Structures
1.
Amino acid sequence: MIRTIIDCDTGIDDSVAILFALRRPEIHVEGITTGCGNTSVDQATDNVLRLLKLAELSYEIPVAKGAGQPLEGTWDGPVVRVHGPNGIGGVELPSSEQCPLDEPASDFIVRMARENPGELTVITLGRMTNLALALQKEPMLPKLVKNVVSMGGVIYGAGNTSPVAEANIAGDPEAADQVIMAGFDLTMVGLDVTMKTRITRQRLEFLRAHCSASNRRVVDYLHGVLEYYLGYYRTQDFAFDHCPVHDPLAVLVAIDPGLVSLKKLPTRIECGGQYCRGKVVVDERPHHFDAPFVTHCLAVAGDRAAEELLSTFM
Ligand code: BDR
Ligand code: CA
């Protein structure tokens, strides 16, 4: 059983990842923490609470609100063209009676790690700000958590917020670099693999036509948000009726690392520069620079991953 804290900036694909994790028997979600990114931290938190209500669980999952700004600089504002006016494609979910904890996300991560040493997998689906803040409060955190799986970065492919940088890393490069330097057992699930894992409209329609009654409301939600997402990728990437699987792939890799080819490489994040800020820098020279080894996903069984994702909602 993977006991996890999911840290997210909910976000269309974050929401799909959360619902997927909640539906998987191999995972127990111990808490969800939120930050700014795709949308404001308040909106991200409200979205998580609404998603938990939609999932109709028999137990309550604590939700802790986190950083509203990156470690340095300021948040750029919501990415409406990708994630809609409310972060979840304009889909209106019923509000929840559940309130977020009084505890900030970074405190929650530290407390949970201390209470469950060596047990927790932290899955980050947004900027690594909350994890970096938690690390500042508890420098032993890399020893207290089992591992970290992060959607973020790109090694060999193109970036998505600049020619070389991916949004979650570019949104807070200092946080990502601090997390890397701390020496977590860290796996980065970047655009090299998420762009090669695609949800197609055809598969979505099949799911909609054949899902069980118990999944109907969740599948209707997926259909609504992914309709928005497909529209963005159609105009942005000339992707005709298919879209990448970013955040859910991090959850899939946490469950089944066999879906990807992994390589450990000495890694830093470029925190300066006009064109390269937020780039993941790996050193493949035999005499490499002095940096912690991070596990990167370089290839993926994309069809299998996408089918595993969608069939979970049948
Ligand atoms: C990442 O950026 C956000 O838009 C997505 O939610 C995902 O976490 C992809 O670059
Ligand atoms: Ca995200």
2.
Amino acid sequence: MQKFVVTGGRRLRGEIKLQGSKNSALPIMAAAILPEGQCLIKNCPELTDVYSAARILNSLGCKCSFSDNQVFTDSALISSTEISEELMREMRSSIVFMGAVLGRMKECTVSIPGGCELGPRPIDMHISSLRKMGIDIRETGGRIICRTRSERPKGAKINLNFPSVGATENIILCAVLADGETVINNAAREPEISDLCGFLRKCGADIKGDGESRIIINGKEKLHGCEYSVMPDRIAAATYLSMTAAAGGEIILKNACVAETEPFLSVIEQTGCTVSTGERKIYLRSGARLHAVRDRIRTMPYPGFPTDAQAVLMSALSVADGTSVFEENIFDCRYRHTQALAKMGADIQVMGKIAVIKGVNRLHGANAEATDLRGGASMIAAALAAEGTSEISRIYHIDRGYEKIEEAVRLLGGDIKRVQ
Ligand code: EPZ
């Protein structure tokens, strides 16, 4: 199995171009099922999760090919409505294919999705919302069998009891070809939802209010293909900025989505790093020692502090002066990386949803196993800041979400190798 060997102690310095967003690209690829024709999706990151999405599309008869960060799809001859358990297990995002296949084909069979182990990840809101849209759903032998009661799914008023990203996406994907109006109250406001809606609007969908808590969709009879460019990855931005804050140095991120990264930038700025932004650019300089962040960092749905940036920022705060406190409010089990950081010398106490980080003078190299995607990235950030060499294994977790992370880190002057 491959691993990363990282030798810390070098300051990072340079410019990198950010990858396209994983969490946009995946639902957009699912959405490519909806138009009866061809789509060209640009700025798509080359990741194992994106390859999984391509395998799902091909298994449904929606032709999908990938080259040079562009995905080409042709859904004219879509032939199947069933996604195998094996493909469903490859990633969490496989669940958004449910809404898309239902929208286009009026029926589908899926199973519980896989993905990072961050605690229980139920799909009850996805199921109850689709039921409201006139879909019969029954579970048998681990399979979830969905059939539209009438000719098309029906528009409905749906009040989510939590602004779930995946449930909001599934409802939108089913609603764009449904009969009538769908209103989603308490919808997720994440920028990746607006990116999905941007793609669907280019295909002819009628969607209003994305980016706000109430989204209104008027179903169309048909959609057409389009060309679309995926937004930059705000979590990859947070990751490279946290690495630079932790190791010290200076970074310019090009092709960045500045406004969408603001909830993270406003917190990392409190560590004493200099942060400035320009047209699609983010600059960060980490000079002297970092300071702890005084206020509790609460992960919240957008525009709150993103749960996906909690682990990587924690690595930087492990070497800050003073004590910082995180409160993880989205997932029950998102501190699994803390044991690896502790092995590297970090002082972290976890109590339920709270993690208390007392900054230490320095970290030291250690061997660690990536526990999940962002947790694995946090171990690279800590290893870059540490004295000595660290080996990080189970890096398939990291490859699910970061495009050639070792090349980006090396471009910044970091010492990282991928070895067998
Ligand atoms: C998306 O996951 C992202 N994944 C996650 O990123 C991200 O952490 C998360 O949104 C929150 O921002 C993708 O976009 C592919 P949710 P998703 O539904 O859609 C509970 C990464 O590292 N819930 O908003 O699964 C759920 O258990 C990944 O890139 C229910 O209870 O997130 C969780 O506690 C990890 N019932 C909370 O809501 C449901 O039916 C938020 O989940 C659905 C969700």
